[in-house]
Amino acid sequence: MRDFDDYDDDRADPELAADGDPEAYLLRLEEEEAEEKGSKSRPKGALMKAVQNALAEFPDHEREMFFMVFSEGVSIAEAARQCGVKGAASAKFNRMLALVREKIG
Question: CB of 103 within 8 A of CB of 50?
């Protein structure tokens, strides 16, 4: 039977044991991997601005619906109801999402 000390997983990793925070450890690994790949990811503020610019042509209440779905995890139907979006809210949301994907890449 194997002892915990020779069990090969993250719990036995000396770096993880040093700070005792597995989430911080995983974030460090992701950052290191992104640096190695030469990741060109956008800062969160720049990404949000790019999304807002992509959706500028839509009415305010439809943009609000879009952001509620993503930022608050509200369903499309509930966000549409709260924002006063009439008609086929799912179709409107999907058009907005497709436009964001096209503009941002």
Answer: yes
Token pair recorded at residue 62:
């439809």
79 with 97, same domain: the answer is: yes
Q: What is the pTM of this model?
A: 0.56
Q: Where are the alpha helices (DSSP H) in the chain?
A: 14-19, 22-37, 44-54, 60-72, 76-83, 89-104
- Closest Cα partner for 62 from 37, 80, 43, 41? 80
- Do residue 48 and residue 33 come from a single domain? no
Q: pLDDT tens track of the chain, all 105 residues? A: 444 444 444 444 545 445 556 666 666 766 776 666 654 555 678 888 888 888 999 999 999 999 999 888 899 999 999 999 998 999 999 999 999 889 887
Structure tokens at 2: 């194997």
Number of domains forming the structure of the chain: 2
Q: CA–CA separation, 76 vs 74, rounded Å?
A: 6
